[in-house]
Amino acid sequence: MDFKSLKELVDWKFNNVDLMKGSSVAKEFYLLGMLAQLVIKFQKRTNANNDFKSSLENYINVMGLANMSNRHRIFSKITDGAKKYTVYGNDWDYLLSQYSNVKSIEKLDEKITVDVANILFVMGSIDYKNLKKAGE
Fold this sequence. Notes:
With 136 residues, the chain is mostly helical. Helices cover 68% and strands 0% of the residues. Helix 2 runs parallel beside helix 4 (71-84), helix 2 runs antiparallel to helix 5 and helix 3 packs antiparallel against helix 4. The longest helix has 22 residues, at 24-45.
């Protein structure tokens, strides 16, 4: 599918991907993947060295798996990286607002498996990367 905007992509995924239907936690992991990719791309763009690996990228590579117990640390690392590199823009604002919306309706006992969490985190990261490549 061809998506013209980030909002169009996220809306479509939330409404059509079975793993995300009715699960705010699943949507959270998808958005975390998108947010992480946005910050990593921003960090790399602001550094002239082609071999540069962002601190967030390193953290995610060392972390291994996204899961219920480390999702808050992941979000904290994303926001720390965003502050350090002064990440801004419509995509950042939109994704943060979606993340806040998803967190506000999350049920305390809602859980997903590690496999689903990782699938959605990677899906969000790849979707953001591919959407931005198509738009560049």
